[in-house]
Structure formats: C-alpha cells, structure tokens
Give the backbone structure.
Amino acid sequence: MSIGRTTANFKTLKYWGKRDKTLNLPTNSSISVTLAQEDLRTLTTAATSSSFEKDNLWLNGKEEGIKGDRTIACLKDLRLLRREMEAADASLPKFSEWPIHIVSENNFPTAAGLASSAAGFAALVVAIAKLYQLPQLMSELSKIARKGSGSACRSLFGGFVAWEMGDLTNGEDSKAVEVAPLSHWPSMKAAILVVSDDKKDTPSTTGMQSTVATSDLFEHRINTVVPKRFEEMKKAILSRDFAAFGEMTMKDSNSFHAVCLDSYPPIFYLNDTSKKIIKLVHALNEQEGKIIAAYTFDAGPNAVIYYDQEHENKVLGLIHKYFHQVSGWEKVSDQVAQFEDLSIPFDTEAYKGVSRIILTQIGSGPQETSESLVSEQGLPK
Amino acid sequence: MSIGRTTANFKTLKYWGKRDKTLNLPTNSSISVTLAQEDLRTLTTAATSSSFEKDNLWLNGKEEGIKGDRTIACLKDLRLLRREMEAADASLPKFSEWPIHIVSENNFPTAAGLASSAAGFAALVVAIAKLYQLPQLMSELSKIARKGSGSACRSLFGGFVAWEMGDLTNGEDSKAVEVAPLSHWPSMKAAILVVSDDKKDTPSTTGMQSTVATSDLFEHRINTVVPKRFEEMKKAILSRDFAAFGEMTMKDSNSFHAVCLDSYPPIFYLNDTSKKIIKLVHALNEQEGKIIAAYTFDAGPNAVIYYDQEHENKVLGLIHKYFHQVSGWEKVSDQVAQFEDLSIPFDTEAYKGVSRIILTQIGSGPQETSESLVSEQGLPK
C-alpha cells in the first residue's frame, strides 16, 4: 500500500495550447507555483494485491472505476516501468500483473475551477510510483503525469516549477523541472478569491484547441512573447524579485485571456467581478509605487493574488476591507487587528460576486503521509 | 450660412493605435459603415460675418466657445484653404478673416459612447467647407476631419468607408476613401444595443496610447493581422458577401478587445452583458448554419449588430424575444407580428443590462439640409 498527497499549482506563465492532444504536449513552456498542502490538496492511496478482482478507482467516496483514456495511459506507463524492474530482479513481487485499487480524495471547493485535475493526476502518479518503488526521478515521472493532465506534471515538484515544452514528437523531453524549491522563497503567499459565476466555462481542453486553431494572435504569443518571458520569469524567481515576478505574472495572465478572447468564437473566463479584482490590485500597486501584489487567472473567473509575507498586512488588509463578508478569513482572525486600512476606493458590493477566500502559501509538493484511505482489504475506509 | 449633417460610423475593422497623436495618424488602416441620418446624427450649422465679435461654438444649446486644440486645428486648415481661394479671386468675400459661428446639435443618447465625436468633427468640417465653398474632394477634407478625431474622417462618406493609414509623417496620405456607397448594399442594417455600465471607460485616446506602449500582441495585430483583413474585408463588401464580412467584423472586434486586455494595466470595454450578446449572436449563426448576424463593439460595452434585411425577421425576432422590454422598438411595432420565434436559450434577465435599442441602417453620409440652427443674427435659434 502506498500513499501520496499532492497539491494544486497555479500557473504564473500560462500553459494554453497543445501541439499533441493525446500526449498533452504544449505549444509553449510554462511556470507555476505549487501551493501548500493544507489548503488545496488531493490525498491518494494506491494498493495492489493479487486477490483484487480488477483495477478500480474511488474518487471522493464514489466508485468511479478506471475509465478515462488519460488515467489508463498513466497506469500503463507506470506498469511498464514496474515490469522493467521485475524483469531485472526476479525476487520482486509481480505488482505489474496485479489489479490496483486507487482511492482519492480532495478538499477543493466543488467545481470551483481550481486545477483539481492537475493535483489529482499528480497524486495518482506519485502514489503508484511509491507503491511500485520506482527509482525514476520526479522529472521522469512528470512525463507520465503530463499524459493525465498537462498541468499535473508541474505538481510533482514543490516551490517554483517550470514545464519545459520540449521539441520531440514523442514527448520524451516535455517535462517538469524545479526552478527553485519552497526554501528559496518561503515568504511567497497567495490569496485565492473564488468567484461565483452563472455560466459554465469552456472546458480548458476544448478552449485550447479552439485558440490554437482560430486565434490570429496566438502564434505570436507562443513564438515571441512567452519564450522571452519564460527566461525572464525564471530569473525573477531566482533573484526573488517580486516586482518583476509580479509584473510578468499579471501580463501573462492578461496575454492568455487575450488570446482566449481572440479565439473564434471568443472564449471568456474573466467576468465583471474578476475585472474589479484586477483593477483593485493595480490600484494598490499604484498607490504603493511598486508591485506588492500580483493577480493571475486560470481558465475561470477565480483570482489568485500572490504577495510576499512582508506586505501581508497591506495586501490582506485591502482584500479584507472589501471582502470580509466571505468565508475563509477564520485562519487569520488573530491577525485582522494588524491589517492596514488603505484608502483605495472600490465597489463595496463586489464581495457579492465572491463565494470564499482561500489563504495559502507556496508549498513543498508531493509528500508521503501516514494517513491511508484504504482498508486492509484494499477498499476505501 | 451653411448647414451640414453627418452621422456616426461604426468600425468593422478597428482603428486602435496612433503613430502621431497631434495629427491623429493611425497605426493601421480601418473600415467602417456609416449609419443612417435619422438615428444617430449631428446637425451643424456654420455662419460667418464681419460683424461677429469672435469665433464661437454652441453644442446642444450650450455656448462652449472654440477651445479644444483639435477644433482649432480643423478651423485653421479650413481657413487656409479658403484663403488660397480668396488670393486667387479677389472678388470673393474675405470669409477667412471673419469670425465664425458654429452651432451643433446631436441626437445621440448622452454619453453612451456611440462615436459622437467622430460625427461631430465630420459635421463641423463639412459645414464650414460648404460655407467657404471649398472645391476640395471629400477625401481631401477627410484629412482635416481626421485631425479633429481620427474616426471622423470616415464619416465624410456614406456607405462603406476605408481610412487608409498612409505612410507619410505629415499625414497627407492618411485619408478616408469610399469602398462602396450606400446604393451598393442598401439592405445592410444595424441594431445597436446600448449597454448600461457602472464604470467609466478608459477614454479611447488614453487607451490607445497605453496599448501601443504596453501590449506585446499589438505589433502583430497591426503588422500582420489587420493588413490582410483590410484587403479581405474590402473584397467581402464589394461582393456583398455577408458571411465573410460578418466573420471578419466579429473577429476584428475580438482582436481589438484582446489587445486592450493585453495592455498593462489591462483595458476592459466589454462587460458581462456584452459577452452574453456575443454568445447569443454566435448561437444564432450556429443554429442557422451560416453567419446572418455580426456584432462589433467599439471602446465601450455597446453592441452593434449588423445583418442583412433579408434576415431581419430572424435577427430582430431573436433580439426582440430577449430584449423587448427596452425602449426603441416603436419604430418596428408593425413588424413584430412577423418576427420569427427562434428557440435559442438565453439569460432572460440580460435585458436588465441594456438601456435601449437603436434600430438603424447604412446611411448616405454628410448631407446638406434646409434646417438651420442659426438665426439671421448668427446666434443659435
């Protein structure tokens, strides 16, 4: 039995566009920050036994079975690596031939569009790799997670992670690498405003295909804008330059949503509440005379606002001022008295468009845990 | 005394970006449709007399005086042309030396962002050119109107109008030309949904400057996307190919708003209501299996929906179904019974974001009128 936990990651340099749908090979390299375990995490336990009837998967307590092509592809790759080990060492039990049970739970707000599938596939790969005692490095395993969900490959590392797009058609060089670990910049924090939305977003896989096929601005983004930004953002992270990191994060979020809007038909992920939050962050930075907070939005209206611990009382103070009505502030209730009261005008009704706040920070990536979701009989507890 | 009327024009290929702020020289060529007189028009009367005390201007009944640099620049150019005439023919009265009175009225909904300044400067130039009996062709005069407001140059023609960006630094080749007159495609109609908005838009001059200076996608738009589309859109107009014209109109609107969003800080003109209207138009076209309606949005949330008369009962039928509560339908009250009832699902509350509908059609451009706004004494009536 093996247990793994992984967490969500939020792109600061966006992944948008596939050059190979089946292998999840991207049209550009990307960078993300992996967030802390306690707030947004998937806990996955894998167990194998010759006595199990068949491969099976339980998600949040519900038996799902192993159906999706992407899950099947990950499982196949992991079994192949295990088979190679077994072939080299006859004393090893034949795990690769036994059915596998996977039990997974996440604590993401339901359907909030918070990259739960990335965390899910990362946790699945890590849990099975541990069960199989695979010797491969995380970058190697990230190629398997990538086939499950592109962004999942970056969740195999903590801290700041790059997904190098690679050139090969078989995807063997399209993998995640660590830019810097959590310990390099542990004061990086994030406030996630979960924005309510009345409409269903375009699923990201469909959206990407549409952008690649129809946006006239997309080629310029992936060939010219992103490659330059990729190098510059790595430098900003390595030198812990929040202003540079923040500016690029905001610009790349906007650039990504711009090519979505330039798709035909256009794809909209930002709503009026998202736009208000964007303006609030710019107003804060302008008043401070430097960038102390940076927003990014994935394929949905939720805002992720990065800031450094040193400016927490300002950044959270401003967000608290206008969004104190939403749930999620309990975590910092003893800090509220220190929050600064900045005078930045804002729509005092904007909180109505937000369902909750998640206060979190940079995380250490996949971790083993003693907490198991599987009983001795190999079934969900 | 001379009287001119001109109307608004709505860009189908967007003008966004100046290479020269003072001369209003654009970074790309653009195309627009000039709309009909009765719905959105500026009526301007110009009078000159040696007995007037000074140059003066009244706008919608209010004495404004001639203050703005742009108005002064237009007046100077027009006087220069008149002076040349007077120099060549001594029998002509010395209008160029006399004070001028300009009285202007428009019927645009207040501050609705419906290109009223373009119509205003076009009417001013036409009225004074008539008063001065200038022999210059409209394209020549369009260069003067352009200095008032870039888009104004296109309002000097009816029908479909191109603004050729030109190359010269003095702007002498940056002028409007007719693509096709009203008579070429008289069945082109437009429904304008005036969208309410709680925030002040970024003024277009400021917005353009910001996009030119900060958007990473902008250069690609103006150097690659627009030049190709400019030629293709002219062809679509000349062949009365609504599907091609409509698709390019929608794509260019989206491309323009994409580079606004890619600006730093980002500029938003579309709001949630605008986005709903965009989706409705795409849903209609999809159900019909061809493009019979096309939206375009200028620097604000108002939707201009173009369609051909032959599909009026479908297009207006759908808009009426979901926006019948807003004012502006009186004009077609006898037609409502023929409207088709299409079954396209939509947010039935969306009408709350729209203040009125303006039903209009392609127009013939500047026209002389017997209606004068100036009394015999040279003052507003």
